[in-house]
Specification:
heterodimer, A: mainly alpha, two-stranded antiparallel sheet, 12 helices, 4 strands, B: alpha/beta, Rossmann fold, 6-stranded mixed sheet, 4-stranded antiparallel sheet, 9 helices, 36% helix
């Protein structure tokens, strides 16, 4: 990371830290949602932006994380802290099982398949499978997280918890993009045949991207459950997946600032213009179309050339 | 023992026999050429060797091991890499990142290094980038390190692709029409580069249409026509072989 980036990220993270002191609790709640959806969008970007696979069922992994925590807590009485590993591992396992048979499919075919998975997933939740998902209304009254006697019940504490997970996500994604597995995702996205012919196991890395992004989405799901103390099928349906998909494309695939900006436009800006009621969505739709026409690589497109300084200096 | 051996390799597309029981044998350290008219099945041979296609019949043996039907990445990791007739670079990425892709298998980073950076990661990363630097210097690409690969001129792109293939430290380098689209100056440079690569201990197998280049650089040639080998031998023998001349120029009609 160069100095300019460090400054940008420093300013961004610092503003998130001090922001709650200037906002009322409604806005802190909006910002918490923004952070949760940022984590999901960043994780969607690993599959869609970096590995270039049209996954339009990302809400499945987000929902699996959220429901794992809610069910284990409400039905089986687990403390929230103990549910977190399951809320990460379950989406990983699910992503590998779902993706393994379809990973070789080309863009549009994969897209349709993942939409199918998402519809099956929400239907299962609505129909109260195994009698634990709570049906169409979902599950209410999930306990707050307790760590060493501290209870995360206030909006402010949940905000900082979400912030911490976002920070973790940013570190993971930074580590990814500067490592061999992260580069492999870009290579196989840009030219799958050439990648294979220089020795990249494209199948393995495609699954890897699914698993990693599912893990992060699952973790975001935990925070979602804690934020609303509730989960319901509507929060994880196909339309939500479309939203995450759109955020990545509009913001800028493989670009961290782009995805964050995209999430901001999709979740925070509509809140700011709440008074305009439904008209704001019209403006939104038009804005999305214009961005895709004028900036097909997103609002903040990715910049390649992430190479160490000693390569360019003598 | 030959480095690479093809035994009766046959590849059929629908009803078309693209490669017809082809047998060739490539010794270690040589520059081997495959020539033939358009549509003779040369690129199909390359695709069979590198695992892009699976041959219907026959065996491909590399260093005494049967690699027929192996996946492309496995074959690459065993020491066979290639370039493409139509250049296939990661166009949006920088020149250095393109060459770094060749270090993928040699880099010992595991999957978790994409999540957590350990001290080993830093050591491995540095070692591989320095290797990339070496290859960039070898091909005169060092000053272009940060530039986008796709916006480079054709000749430079060919070099990047070769540097990328070479960065995998292959034992056999397969070049699919390396001189296509190059001007005379670039072609001369290419001859030097290919010789330099051979002197590094890499065996080279190439397809080329440019006869001057093939005759100048290769040590042994096989000629394909309609998927069949019609001749083989040293360049000077091939040049005067009537069967080869006929395949390229057609048969002379005798006047009655």
């Amino acid at each position: 990371m160069n100095t300019k980036n460090i400054v940008y990220y420093g300013i961004f993270l610092f503003s998130l830290i001090i922001l709650p002191f200037f906002l009322n609790s409604d806005w802190v709640s909006v910002m918490t949602t923004f952070i949760i959806y940022s984590i999901v969008s960043l994780s969607q970007d690993i599959v869609l932006g970096r590995a270039g696979m049209f996954d339009m069922g990302h809400a499945i992994f987000f929902g699996l994380g959220a429901y794992s925590t809610a069910i284990l807590n409400m039905v089986y009485g687990w403390p929230i802290l103990a549910t977190i590993p399951i809320a990460i591992i379950l989406p990983i396992v699910a992503s590998i099982i779902l993706a393994a048979p379809i990973i070789h499919l080309r863009g549009d075919y994969l897209l349709v398949t993942t939409i199918g998975f998402n519809i099956v997933f929400t239907q299962a939740l609505k129909n109260n499978v195994f009698g634990i998902t709570g049906g169409p209304n979902g599950i209410f009254g999930v306990e707050p997280l307790k760590i060493l006697g501290f209870v995360f019940s206030s909006q402010l504490s949940i905000y900082y918890l979400a912030f911490f997970i976002l920070l973790l996500t940013l570190i993971v994604i930074h580590n990814l993009e500067t490592s061999k597995p992260g580069r492999a995702l870009h290579y196989l996205n840009l030219d799958s045949l050439a990648s294979e012919c220089i020795g990249i196991n494209t199948r393995f890395y495609r699954l890897y991207s699914f698993a990693l992004s599912a893990a992060l989405a699952g973790l975001a799901g935990v925070v979602f459950t804690l934020q609303f103390s509730a989960v319901s099928p509507g929060a994880f349906n196909f339309i939500q997946s479309v939203l995450f998909f759109t955020i990545v494309l509009v913001g800028g695939p493989s670009s961290i600032p782009g995805v964050l900006l995209g999430t901001f436009f999709m979740f925070v800006v509509p809140e700011i213009f709440r008074q305009f009621a439904e008209a704001r969505y019209l403006v939104f739709g038009v804005a999305m179309i214009l961005i895709m026409i004028w900036r097909p690589k997103g609002i903040w497109p990715v910049k390649f050339g992430r190479i160490p300084n000693y390569l360019t200096k003598e | 023992m030959a480095l690479l051996e093809l035994n009766n390799v046959t590849k059929i597309f629908g009803g078309l026999v693209a490669v017809d029981s082809l047998s060739i044998s490539i010794e270690k350290g040589m520059i081997y050429g495959i020539i033939g008219p358009n549509g003779a099945g040369k690129t199909t041979v390359f695709n069979c060797i590198t695992g892009v296609y699976k041959p219907e019949k026959g065996k491909i043996i590399f260093k005494g091991k049967d690699i027929t039907g192996f996946s492309s990445h496995k074959i690459a990791n065993m020491g066979i890499t290639r370039t493409f007739q139509t250049i296939r670079l990661f166009n949006e990425m920088s020149v250095a990142e393109n060459i770094m892709s060749g270090r993928h298998f040699k880099s010992r980073q595991k999957w978790w290094h994409g999540i957590i950076h350990t001290p080993f990661y830093y050591k491995d990363e540095r070692a591989n980038w320095l290797k990339v630097k070496e290859y960039m210097e070898l091909f005169g690409l060092a000053r272009l390190a940060k530039m986008t690969a796709g916006s480079q001129p054709y000749g430079v792109q060919r070099k990047i692709e070769m540097a990328r293939a070479l960065a995998t430290e292959p034992e056999l380098l397969i070049l699919d029409e390396p001189a296509a689209g190059l001007n005379d100056k670039e072609r001369l440079e290419l001859v030097d580069t290919i010789r330099k690569i051979r002197d590094m201990g890499v065996t080279i197998l190439l397809i080329e249409h440019n006869m001057d280049l093939v005759m100048n650089i290769t040590e042994y040639i096989s000629v394909l026509n309609f998927g069949k080998k019609i001749a083989e031998g040293k360049p000077e023998d091939i040049q005067n072989n009537p069967v080869v001349i006929e395949a390229y120029l057609g048969k002379e009609e005798e006047d009655e």
